[in-house]
What we know:
The chain is built from three helices and two strands, in the order H-H-H-E-E. By secondary structure, the chain is of the alpha+beta class. The protein is elongated, with a radius of gyration of 21 Å.
Amino acid sequence: MSPRERNHPALETCPAGVLAPGPTESASAIEHQAALDATVFRREQEANELVLELEAGELRLRRRAD
């Protein structure tokens, strides 16, 4: 970074929470409960492991790669 860039106010840093605060604890709990309520659990003959991933409000099933 050049001295000119270092002095530019647009390049100042700030805590990430100021720009995009994360969900509150209760909002996160509600989202997780809603995901569990919407999940259909079923048995599969060859499944030894099921991994559910929740990212950005989207629930995905990840299967173990053999």
